[in-house]
Amino acid sequence: MNPSPDLEPDRARHGASRVIGVLGGIASGKSAVARGLAGQDGVVIDADELARAAFDSPEIRARVATTFGPEVLNPDGSVRRDVVARRVFASARERAELEAFTHPWIRDRIRAALDAARARGVARIVLDVPLLLENDSRHGLAAECDTLVFVDSDERTRDDRAVSERGWHAGEVARREAHQMPLAAKRARADHVIHNRGTKGDLDQLVRELSDEIDRS
Predict the structure, then answer these.
(1) Could you tell me the maximum CA-CA distance found in the chain, to the nearest angstrom?
(2) How many C-alpha atoms does 8 have within 13 Å on its Cβ side?
(3) Where are the domains of the chain?
(4) Shortest CA distance to 82 belongs to which of 166, 151, 146?
(5) CA 19 – CA 127 distance, rounded (Å)
(6) Rounded distance, CA 86 to CA 56, Å?
(7) CB of 22 within 8 A of CB of 127?
(8) What is the C-alpha to C-alpha distance for residues 19 and 107, in angstroms, rounded to an integer?
């Protein structure tokens, strides 16, 4: 599928760097696709990695303790992320409170990383940002993308991955995605779809083929 016509003016504005946004469900393989599309010379801006860094920062840890109480901290002062996650996905109010001070912190660092990569003339910048579309009214990152790629994987497989690789309880993927934009809507926004329904080798091959197609576009 060719990029949408309305993305072409953005490409000219963005300069030499091509920005690719990766969409998809939880545990669909977005990070693997992002790394493959970036290649050795590209840059992946990983929002989940920045979220982990946020919880390691003194300012965010202090806000977490103030908001949720000292019981969400380990004896060494680090955040018990599993405890915080259970609370915020069980309470819309607490989730909003957490996002009110973590999301601006993360957005600032995504923007700084994007600007820095462009300034260095990085040819490919891949945004691995789970809420790329949901929070676009706040960060405006979707408009920065020259291409949007959706990673398609069935819910059962994704749930199994989350259980085996992340230690989540069965059904947790569906519970968390209930708070996000429907996957069908994300897929409809994408310029390309990658089907992650086989082996890692299959996925790697599909990513290489898509990478070549993007280069030709």
Answers:
(1) 54
(2) 6
(3) 5-216
(4) 166
(5) 7
(6) 19
(7) yes
(8) 16
Per-residue tokens: 215: 């280069």
Provide the residue type at 72 as one letter: V
One digit per residue, the tens of pLDDT, for the chain of length 217 reads 444 444 444 444 445 899 999 999 999 999 999 999 999 999 999 999 999 999 999 999 999 999 999 999 999 999 999 999 999 988 999 999 999 999 999 999 999 999 999 999 999 999 999 999 999 988 999 999 999 999 999 999 999 999 999 999 999 999 889 889 999 999 999 999 999 999 999 999 999 999 999 988 8
Q: Is the pTM of this model over 0.90?
A: no
Residue 130 C-beta-side C-alpha neighbours within 13 Å: 16
Cα–Cα dist 148/214, whole Å: 11
DSSP letter, residue 123: S
Any idea what DSSP says for residue 143?
G
* Rounded CA Rg of the chain: 18
The hierarchical CATH code for the domain 5-216 is 3.40.50.300
Q: How many helices (H) and strands (E) does the chain have?
A: 11, 5
Q: Would you state the structure tokens that stand for residue 53, as one six-digit string? A: 């860094």
